[in-house]
Amino acid sequence: MSEINLLESVTAFLQRSHGHYINGASVLSQESTINQKNTMLSVVNPASGEIIATVNQAGEAEVNQAMQAASSAFHGVWAQTSPIERGNCLNRLADLLQKNGEELAQLESLCSGKPIQLSRMLEVGASADYLRYFAGWSSKISGETLNVSLPSLKGEHYTAFTRREPIGVVVGIIPWNFSIMIAIWKLGAALASGCTIVLKPSEYTPLTILRVAELAKEAGIPDGVINIVNGSGAHIGSALVSHPQCAKVTFTGSVSTGMNVGKSALEQGLKRVTLELGGKNAAAFLPDMTVDKIVDGILEAGYVYQGQICAAAERFYIPSIHMDAVLKLLSERLSAMKIGSPLDESTEMGPLANKEHYEKILSLFEKARQEGNEIVYGGHVLEGAGFFVAPTIIKANSADDTLMKEETFGPIGTFLSYDDEEELITMMNATPFGLSASLWTNDLSKAMRMLPRIKAGTLWVNMHTFLDPAVPFGGMNSSGIGREFGSAFIEHYTELKSVMMRY
Ligand code: TXE
Question: What is the CATH number that goes with domain 282-461?
């Protein structure tokens, strides 16, 4: 094992006192908040189980300060910033993400267990790309001119047009799996639309976005436009959602929390909501695929970043003629996978991101055993410190097994064979969720006929888990409300105002 050397800036950043980022400055919680709640968030390196930094939890004072700062900036400096300059701000932040990319990638790998190559590629590289995409939109958001059909009784004329107006202060609630990239998705969409934002990172990964906020200041993004408040979901997350100055909530996380957040936002003033929740995504391989290609596809769809990607596949449908050969080859490929330190550039799989998640995965292994599923490969912890488990293959007995229905969010593929393509579509759709799915076949004509029948917000053919800033992303059914990216985001971050005139 050979780990990369940590940059001095990374070690120095971990040792600092951390709290929040409000109105252009790093702030710690007020004394009273800390004493009252006596809580600090511990940032644990999941590869070692050790605490590597601590972060203050916010109290009411910090929530109010952040919301006030975002509101003042929304009505003041950001409203006076031209659309082109808003885009320039996002582009300069993208430049700084890339310039400081290695520092951010190392911090992210230390805090989340993401293999360093993945942190560099997604948390830094893709985040910069998303910012540049949103930067382009900032000067292209517009309404339309409409024909009016009112009768002209006394020779008067009418005209009408629509305006897209920024919605206000956005509260962004962020999960632990991509603590920079998902925050950038929310931040980029909000700022391009003319909104300001208060972000609440996950309790497990509160650190990296604080560094991004400092870079945002260096990029010339005015104070108050981006604010970060750290704390628990139950206290601080819900206080932000119910705050009177919050106009919209954008949330990525679990289905149950997302439903509560959505309900609370609607109950407290019909606040606008975008929810990107998880699911139980299916990948279906048609009989024309070779065993090699099927296994390549499964690895891409289900095992990247320990399966901790909301769009990753967890249910795999394999033609019964190929099932045994696929599971055999997949077992061989998983056993050759390099599992280890996220700071080793050759690592393909790191630890699970936190202890609670690790325990959840262990309980799901147990559940599979209790229900009589065959654990074809893995299904156990790996020796040593940290939250490592073996990548796992489970052969289900039926579509009703827990592992075919419940999101694991881990490196677990659950497999079911099929013979009939009608039955396949029924099984793929037999879920309350609908975030993503993939079909794998060389028969594109057949794929085109099947696509409209599969219930998922994003469908891939011969690929899985790839997101792109130009392509709308979001869930059907219990997997969410609204779409991120493409031009679809505009609808969710602006209000549509109609103006009619008589002349
Ligand atoms: O998620 P939560 P957790 C899934 C995955 C994982 C499970 C639990 O299966 O095992 O969710 O993870 C904030 N008001 N996903 O507990 O609870 C919370 O502080 C406002 C899928 O981390 O959904 C955090 O910032 N906010 C997912 C964020 O919500 C609240 C990615 C997500 O936390 C809140 C991560 C409240 N009442 C986990 N309660 C995906 N779709 O990508 C919590 N939060």
Answer: 3.40.309.10
Q: How much distance in Å is there from the Cα of 305 to the middle of ligand 1?
A: 17
CATH superfamily of 8-278+480-500: Aldehyde Dehydrogenase; Chain A, domain 1 (3.40.605.10)
Output the pLDDT for position 150: 87
Give the pairing type, strands 25-27 and 20-22.
antiparallel
Which of 29-33, 214-218, 440-444 is predicted with the least confidence, judged by mean pLDDT? Answer: 29-33
| Distance (Å, whole) CA 75 – CA 54 | 34
Residue 34 has pLDDT above 60, yes or no: no
Average pLDDT, the chain: 96
- Which of 180, 229, 257 for mutating ligand 1's site (highest number of atoms within 8 Å of CB)? 257
Nearest protein Cα to ligand 1, atom 24 = 202
In whole angstroms, what is the distance from residue 29 CA to residue 19 CA? 6
Give the residue whose CA is nearest to atom 7 of ligand 1.
254
- Testing ligand 1's pocket by substitution, the residue of 254, 357, 409 carrying the most ligand atoms inside 8 A of its CB is 254
pLDDT for res 33: 61
pLDDT tens column, 39-86: 789 999 999 999 999 999 999 999 999 999 999 999 999 999 999 999
Report residue 209: phi and psi, to 5°: -70, -20
Residue bearing the CA closest to ligand 1, atom 10: 357
Q: How far is the C-alpha of 306 from the C-alpha of 113, rounded, in Å?
A: 9
